[in-house]
Structures are given as structure tokens and as C-alpha cells.
């Protein structure tokens, strides 16, 4: 039996998905991208899952697209026609990035080592990014004549502003996790040995909170980027209206007034 390319485990309401090709720093193959998407679909469909953690096996998080995959044209022979690498984005990366962004529960990236290329932007597309101190983020694309993909062109300027986004994208240098935190690219950098336990504790904490409202918060932030202020206010009102009819609001408000701990159940 082969090891799965995505290892799946569950602790309470927290589902952990581990990229599992450590010998290649978990570089993405198309099979791995498909398995990650299926694992996220399964988590989204499972009422017992209230938070997802994504991490990597071994010393890396993910080195981006596997550049030895025939689909990305390594070692073309003279006269051999290159394949369209855009198809890989259409077929695998775009659905995966959209899947993360539409999860009904919060998604944490626990970046345990290098996150390069699409591996970096896959992590940055998650809701909270927490990294070990020895991890680094590399927009490796410019070194091989490509632009940031897997959402990088959208995410980077929004996260750190155009000047720093261009610095990262054009120079393609290693950005250590502590600097990534200092520039606002990620939520938090922690000592390596504390990463797994901190990410799991954070996930357990989020899983007890009103996760439906968290997914709606992500949606509101994403949509606000393309809305006028007044339209953002109206979208907030529409979402708040729906959430106000949901059980979590009733429970949260009642628990506050009754001076007891709330127990949230919506997703
Ligand atoms: C790898 C890889 C890798 C294969 C390490 N592939 N084997 C989307 C769609 C369509 C087309 C193209 O692109 C995209 C999006 C992208 O993601 S493009 C960007 C692709 N990624 C990169 O360019 C990063 C390439 N990797 C590196 O620069 C280095 O490996 C980093 C800086 C990540 C880590 O360096 P080291 O810590 O020194 O490790 P290493 O280089 O020795 O790697 C360890 C092994 O992993 C090694 O294999 P080996 O058999 O020699 O031990 C590498 O060949 C393999 N590996 N990245 N992307």
C-alpha cells in the first residue's frame, strides 16, 4: 500500500490534512492536488468538522508545483511541442484555491517549513497562517519566468501592499516566517517545536466558536475588496440579517444574558 498523498486525521471537531510527499518537500503533483481538493470537499460535507488545519510532513510545507511533472514540460526534446501549463491551473489550482475560500469552517495553515511558489500562495489563501520560525515563504515564480499564481496576484498586494508584494514577487527571495509576521503577510510565527501544538490549540478554540459567522466574515472581506463602501455596508446588513435568524446568534446572545458559556452548533 502507498502512503496517501494527503494524510487525514481528526481530533474532536478539528480535521487535519497533511501534505505527504516529504522527499520532494511536498511539491504538488496533480494527484496530490486532486486528493487535497477531495479531502477539503469531505471536510466541508462533514457536520462533525468545525475547523481544518493544513500542514506538511517532514521538513517542508510545500515547494509548489512539482517541476519534474511531464505536464509542466521539463526536459523538452528539440522539436517537442510544450504543453499549456495554464491547463494545470484551470484543472487543479483554481478549483483548489476556490475550495479553500468557500469552506464553511475556518482553515488554518500550519507552515512547518519552506512554502514556495503555489505552495506559499496556497497557504496564504487560508484564513489564519501560523508558521514555525524556521519556515520561509518564497514567491519562486519569477526565478522560472512565471508570475505568482494560486491567487498570489490577488492575495499579496492585499496582504502587504503593492510595494512589498512586488518586492516578494520580483525578487523571489526567501522570506523568513518572523519577517512574514512583521510585514503582516501571516498571522503568527512561533518556535518550531510549538507549531503543531499551537495550531491545534487554535483550531480547537475556533471549533468551539460560531464558525458559520467566521466563514461569512471571510466572504465579506473578500467581496468588500471589489465593493464601494455603501455596497459593503449593504452586504454586511444582508449577511447579518441571515445570521440573526441562525441558532448561533440566539445561543450567543442568550448565553451572554444568562451569564453562561455558549454552545454553538451552526455550520
Ligand atoms: C522538488 C521541488 C519542486 C520537484 C523541491 N518540484 N521537486 C503552477 C502550474 C503550472 C506550472 C508551473 O507552476 C505552477 C506554480 C508553481 O508552484 S511554480 C514554482 C515551483 N516551485 C519552485 O520553483 C521551487 C523549487 N524548489 C526550490 O527552489 C527549493 O527546493 C526550495 C527553496 C523550495 C528548498 O530548497 P532546499 O531546502 O535546498 O531543498 P532541495 O532543493 O534540496 O529540495 C529537496 C528535494 O525536493 C530535492 O530532491 P532530491 O531528490 O534532490 O533530494 C528537490 O529536487 C525536491 N524538490 N522542490 N518544486
Question: Which features characterize this protein?
Answer:
45% helix; alpha/beta; 16% strand; 6-stranded mixed β-sheet; 267 residues; 4-stranded mixed β-sheet
How would you explain this protein's 3D organization?
With 267 residues, the protein is an alpha/beta fold. Helix 4 (152-160) packs across helix 5. The strands form 2 sheets. It has a 6-stranded mixed sheet with strand order 1-2-3-5-7-10, sandwiched between helices. A 4-stranded mixed sheet has the order 4-6-8-9. The model has no long low-confidence stretch (mean pLDDT 97). The chain has helices at 30-45, 86-101, 118-124, 152-160, 162-171, 177-182, 195-207, 211-224, 229-245, 247-257; strands at 6-11, 14-19, 51-56, 60-62, 107-111, 114-116, 128-132, 136-138, 175-176, 188-190. 45% of the residues lie in helices and 16% in strands. It is globular. The structure holds ligand LHQ. Residues 24-25, 27, 63-68, 72, 85, 88-89, 114, 116-118, 138, 140-141, 144, 146, 149 line the site of ligand LHQ. Ligand LHQ binds next to helix 2 and strand 6.
Helix/sheet category: alpha/beta
Uncertain ranges: none
Q: Ions, cofactors, ligands: which are bound?
A: ligand LHQ
Distance between the termini: 35 Å
Radius of gyration (CA) equals: 19 Å
Largest sheet: 6 strands, mixed
Q: State the oligomer.
A: single chain
Mean pLDDT: 97
Blueprint (SSEs and pairs):
Elements: E1 6-11, E2 14-19, H1 30-45, E3 51-56, E4 60-62, H2 86-101, E5 107-111, E6 114-116, H3 118-124, E7 128-132, E8 136-138, H4 152-160, H5 162-171, E9 175-176, H6 177-182, E10 188-190, H7 195-207, H8 211-224, H9 229-245, H10 247-257
The site of ligand LHQ has 23 residues, from helix 2 and strand 6.
